[in-house]
Amino acid sequence: MIFFGKDNSDLIKASKLIKKGELISFPTETIYGLGADATNETAVRRVFHAKGRPNFNPLIAHVSSIEMAQSIAEIDDRAMRLIMLFWPGPLTLILKKKPNTVCDALTAGLDTVAVRMPANDIALKLIENTGVPIAAPSANKSGCPSPTEAKHVIRSFDNDMVSGVVNGGRTKIGLESTILDLTSENPTILRHGFITAEDIQNKLLMKVEESTTPDKKGKVKSPGQLLRHYAPSLPVRLNVRYHVKSNEALIAFGKTRLKAKKVINLSPTKNLKEAAHNLFAALIELDEDALYSGIAVMPIPNKGIGVAINDKLKRASIK
User: Which of 181, 195, 274, 291 has the fewest CB neighbours in a 10 Å radius?
Assistant: First the structure.
């Protein structure tokens, strides 16, 4: 595995490998992605293989400009309003796919495509240098906590599966993008993320619906809809208020009198943005510690970004 810095010469080298069909992990403002040329069927299929991800679970195409987004998706006035308000940023839009653009593997054969422009200079430069949209799901094994540091990526993959990783330090947000479906009658959140339903409703001045689980036939339309996801190997017990078991580590939020041999506090001051930033790193750190056989988690307020945090934790706790 090659380790790249964030200077332009390294990013050019990394983009050349992507153009050759290799897989390169890189940081966005949300998490580290596992990048492949979104127009290259073979390369995108390698992403599914490396992650152990089911091929019915579509990926997001990351773009470096509105023009690149328009080259692969139908962007109407409503979509453009959201783009102008939230891009670059942690909002993914589900749009009608233009034919003969991104490969079928990326969209899992759907006639829609998930698109976003990351708010990270490394990611934008890498995509721009590559000259095509980059498929970039989280750079980890499917279903596990998402990586927010380069060392988390290295932990997940053998050297022959991923050609390199661009080390951009700890990601700024630490929580995946919100996914909003604009192909349904009403805008519909398919995955909760850093941008909340209230944020979108306030900008669109219309109700935003929610559909964050597979449909009745078990089909998914976007990443993040599978019921068990973001899960460490250790069992996760939620909404712990009174007692931590002797074999459990504790993920705390705010001041607490709960006792445990190891405590990671997502935010002593009850700041939900800080908690979101620290969530996945905490799950990964505790999962690597052989001293514990479970993780207890204190309650997180289910408001604002707390909705997304609780959504991740709920999926992580499903056995």
Answer: 291
In this predicted model, what pLDDT tens digit does every residue of 261-308 receive, in sequence order? 899 999 999 999 999 999 999 999 998 887 889 999 999 999 999 999
CA–CA separation, 216 vs 38, rounded Å?
A: 29
The alpha carbon of 261 is separated from its chain's Cα centroid by a whole number of angstroms, namely 30
Residue 158, number of CB atoms within 10 A of its CB:
8
Give the tokens for residue 175.
Answer: 């929580």
Cβ within 8 Å of residue 32, ≥6 positions away: 25, 26, 138, 139, 146, 147, 148, 149, 150, 152, 153, 165, 171
Q: Which residues contact 271 (CB under 8 A, 6 or more apart)?
A: none
Q: Are 71 and 92 in contact (CB under 8 A)?
A: no
The whole model's pTM is what?
A: 0.95
**CB-count exposure of residue 180 (10 Å: 0-12, 13-18, 19+):** buried
Q: Encode pLDDT of 191-228 as tens digits.
A: 999 999 999 999 888 899 999 988 877 888 888 888 88
92: tokens are: 């993914």
The mean predicted confidence, pLDDT, of the chain is 95
